[in-house]
């Protein structure tokens, strides 16, 4: 077994060599936000969809576009608004008068990286148009089903402070996001670096980028291809997960359903519904991808702890009592990780 793990470790170190150059290129544009960048890479390496939550101006959209440029992936951005229609997302059938035939006009969902900006601003009918694409990796237009090109992932953003005129995502859709990533403010030093790097571009726009005497602050180089990314997914699937680590994952997910069983009796009345089996799958897959990014061929408990909050925070449905006492799902997840024994 140890020889097999050693072989997998060597394979991962060799096949993950493109990760560091991608991070280096992204950092040319994005200051800080390493947590968000790594989660986007985890999504690309697993095909999992990512929900980003943060106030406006934290470079969520710019980060996704920059990562897409480094992997030479087709990028599509959809601004979700209350008047958006499902056809605006998936496409529609049009009639050609010259040929007398109907044909499908594909929508912006047909891309490798799809950014659903402010997803909670569109009504449920539009949000449901994403469900087939996210879960089945296909889109039905008229009576024809079209397979989506791989790699494919949806990156959605939502604003946590403006809730007027928004449509909360249904639990079935939220559960289809592998990770829910909270994006925070930069540190003082990071914000100073952002200001110095982007001020000229903010004033002059593309003119600053077109001036040969000024470096383009948004320019990055392609570091890999979508083909190499798909090959890396196969390697991620070979990352070793010990039986004790698998039991650790199951114990954590089970604890979200009944915290009292692990001694957290005060949280027993705070959880209406715990995480689904999809959480166990996502936690396993995300931990493997996290180990791959760290150039390891095996998963450690630290990988589980690192990705755990992002995988679980949107899958715990609190009771009214928890909401009244302002106990967040973040607090519940933290308490569970403190209580479950680490292998």
Overall description:
With 343 residues, this protein is α/β, with parallel strands linked by helices. It folds into 2 domains: 29-212, Rossmann fold; 232-339, Orthogonal Bundle (Helicase, Ruva Protein, domain 3), CATH 1.10.8. Helix content is 48%, strand content 15%. The chain has 15 helices and 11 strands. It has helices at residues 2-15, 19-29, 34-46, 60-70, 86-90, 124-136, 171-174, 188-204, 206-210, 226-236, 243-257, 277-293, 301-312, 320-324, 329-339; strands spanning 49-53, 75-79, 91-96, 101-106, 113-117, 138-141, 144-147, 153-158, 177-182, 271-273, 317-318. The strands form 4 sheets. It has a 5-stranded parallel β-sheet with strand order 2-5-8-1-9. A two-stranded antiparallel ribbon has the order 3-4. Helix 11 packs across helix 12 and helix 13 (301-312) packs antiparallel against helix 15 (329-339). The radius of gyration is 21 Å and the shape is globular. The mean pLDDT is 85.
């Amino acid at each position: 077994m140890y020889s097999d793990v050693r072989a997998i470790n060597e394979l991962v170190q060799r096949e993950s060599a493109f990760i560091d150059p991608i991070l280096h290129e992204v950092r040319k544009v994005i200051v800080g936000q390493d947590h968000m960048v790594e989660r986007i890479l985890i999504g690309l390496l697993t095909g999992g969809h990512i929900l980003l939550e943060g106030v406006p101006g934290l470079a969520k959209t710019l980060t996704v576009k920059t990562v897409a440029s480094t992997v030479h992936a087709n990028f599509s951005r959809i601004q979700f608004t209350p008047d958006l229609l499902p056809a605006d997302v998936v496409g529609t059938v049009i009639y050609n008068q010259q040929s007398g035939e109907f044909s499908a006009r594909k929508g912006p969902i047909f891309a490798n990286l799809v950014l659903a900006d402010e997803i909670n601003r569109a009504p449920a009918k539009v949000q449901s148009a994403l469900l087939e694409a996210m879960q089945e990796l296909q889109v039905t237009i008229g009576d024809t089903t079209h397979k989506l090109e791989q790699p494919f992932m949806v990156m959605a953003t939502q604003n946590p402070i403006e809730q007027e005129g928004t449509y909360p995502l249904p639990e079935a859709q939220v559960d289809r996001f592998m990770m829910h990533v909270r994006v925070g403010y930069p540190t003082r030093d990071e914000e100073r670096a952002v200001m110095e790097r982007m001020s000229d571009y903010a004033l002059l726009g593309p003119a600053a980028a077109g001036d040969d005497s000024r470096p383009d602050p948004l320019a990055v180089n392609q570091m890999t291809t979508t083909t190499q990314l798909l090959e890396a997914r196969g390697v991620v699937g070979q990352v070793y997960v010990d039986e004790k680590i698998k039991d650790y994952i199951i114990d954590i997910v089970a604890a979200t359903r009944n915290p009292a069983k692990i001694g957290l009796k005060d949280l027993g009345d705070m959880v209406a519904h715990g995480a689904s089996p999809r959480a166990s799958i996502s936690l396993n897959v995300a931990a493997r991808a996290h180990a791959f990014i760290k150039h390891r061929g095996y998963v450690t408990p630290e990988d589980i702890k690192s990705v755990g909050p992002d995988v679980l925070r949107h899958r715990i449905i609190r009771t009214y009592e928890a909401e009244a006492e302002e106990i967040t799902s973040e607090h519940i997840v933290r308490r569970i990780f403190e209580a479950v024994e680490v292998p």
